[in-house]
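#struct-pred
JK: can someone run the complex with adenosine-5'-diphosphate? inputs below
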Amino acid sequence: MSNALSIDELSVSYGPIPALKNVSIEVPNGGFVSVLGANGAGKTTLVRTISGVLYLQKGKRTSGSIKFGGEDISKLKSRSIVRGGIAHVPEGRMLFPHLTVDENLRCGAASRRDTSGISETLSEVFDLFPQLPPLQHQQAGLLSGGEQQMVAVGRALMAKPSLLICDELSLGLAPLIVRDLFLLLDRINQEGVAVLAIEQNARIALRHSKYAYALEVGEVVLEGPSAELRENQEVQDLYMGGGGDIREAYTAIRREVNR
Amino acid sequence: MSEMTITDTSTSGSSSVKRVPASLRVLPFLVALASPLILDNISWNPFAGWKILVGFILLIVVGKFAWSTAERDPDNPRLALKLWHRPDQRALTAMTCMGLVAIPFILGTDFDPPMDFPWASWFRIVNYIVLFALGAGAFNLLAGYTGQLSMAHAAFLMIGTMVGAHVGLIWGQSFWLCLPIAAVAGAALGALFGIPALRLRGLYLMLATIGVHFIVLLGWKEYLVHYFGFGGVRFNAPNLPSWLHWVPGINPEDGEFLINTQFRWFWLNLTITTICLLFLVNVIRSREGRAFAAVRDRDISATLLGINVARSKLVAFALSSAMVSVSGCLLSYYNRARSEDSFNLEQVLDYGIIIVVGGFMGIQGAIFGSVFFFALPMYFEWMREELPFISDIDFFSRYAGEVDLAIRGILVVVVLVWRPDGLAGLWQAAKNRLLRQFQNSQAGAAQ
Ligand SMILES: Nc1ncnc2c1ncn2[C@@H]1O[C@H](COP(=O)(O)OP(=O)(O)O)[C@@H](O)[C@H]1O
Ligand SMILES: [Mg+2]
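RT: done, structure tokens with the ligand placed:
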């Protein structure tokens, strides 16, 4: 069975405000795709729509379809989507601060029916993040940002996904830690899990992904193999420094106004 | 949760495996539970107060025994999931067991403390502590652990009372049947009244559940008028079923054993509270319990992970209400009388104070909070009436109730400013500190 994700002409709006306009994105089976875009471009909206939690933000899909493994998932509950194999590392990590690392990870397996396999997955996650076992019984809220992000990724992996979506993994983290996290994504990807990395940090995302899309004010403005985009002058100007600062400041202001 | 981690630095062989047969593992707890019998049957009496001394030695021995029969196996993840497996946890639990079974015997002795310290009334206080620990533990599961701020607590006390009155008095069934029926009724109505929680949260949910309180209060008043009249209900003493008459210490009169003394009530309350609280502790440690906390901390995140948030909330409501309802039934039989004004919104605040002072995040907090809530007023009263200087102050005796409330309020503020995680947090910190010191000294001795 193919586990490709294919989003076709998706439009989403929050009330009267459109957030995504005719967005089409493909993540092939076992692929590593990134979506770039400045603040407010609609990246998080895209992830929320895929994971079926858009309704919590009062958002609505106005047109388009989302297929995963050939099946339409746009009307499914988030629970069924996780069960179907799409796990989501939310923006800003969103751990359960009062639960321990171990409990946070176990919560990631909440949707699983094969309860007997959970301990095994837990030890696999601990193998992947050797920093975590010593922190197992600490409250997640007390960990450093990098450690929390690892727990967040580990928690998503506890569902044994075939597609892992990471929303701004690099947010607020030191460059070295971001690099380590992306190396881990590479490893996860090599084990056969498709990865969809949503990033503002185009430099690192383009280095690790195989294909990339650039999102701007809710629309895909550019797409292509990551290696090609890296060489592209426009991408360099817009997303890898050079004028980016002004643009970010602008979109940040717009975002505030829109609230 | 409330358990902080203690890195196992115990001496050199911390990585070694130690296995203990199951019979030896439970033995310290059996000794602890049988300690009153042991102490009662020693007929050796060289000096006054010998029992206290022997009891104290036995307490230490039991603790040490439980400590040394702890299993150790770093590679076995199942062991780490067990409730009381570390040596210190085992020792404390065994000593607590012994302390609990000793309480009624200590309080039952004819003893006249100096300065007229009210000895006999402590029994009543202890019984209330045990009963309120049950209700507060159930309240904590909902308000503290699942984060659903419900004010319908007294409503479920009323529901438990109504079940107790109807099944026990109107239908004339045994008291023992009232408890499970109260639990079922509480669970069903809890799930029903929990439905607003699917849409509302925080203050809004609080207001909605206040509405539930007044609806049930109306029902309770109507019920009283209809079945019992304005005088209220009088409950009769529960009768222990005859198949339990073999238990040591039970000597039925005329084939009946009525639970009508503080001593007897203590055992009943303790048993039911222990069973219910252990059940809650285990729920919290299960997948279901983790989901409760996940919903409390971040419900969006919980939804994303595939947790059924609506179901979690309703299960928490049902579970908590079932236990509150049981505690309401038990409290009413213990109190013997309930009338129209027995349940008011203030009671919900009492339970709120208990769990906030005791500690929001665990069942332990409910126990600490109940002790705080009931033991302190007793102290105040005694100090106000008996202590020289203080008893002379006219103001205190004139505004007794208000002064008590004010002091309690001040203490609540002090505890919360000092330790936001309440008395349970204080206790955990103190325990961890002692333990670390102990381990350091052992490590020092080993070198
Ligand atoms: N809950 C919401 N209600 C209304 N508008 C929203 C909401 N969330 C996001 N938006 C708007 O949708 C647009 C895209 O936001 P978002 O998906 O968060 O962007 P990104 O993740 O790329 O920063 C922004 O203009 C933002 O203001
Ligand atoms: Mg975003």
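RT: quick notes.
The radius of gyration of chain B is 24 Å.
The longest strand of chain B covers residues 233-234.
JK: thanks, will look after standup
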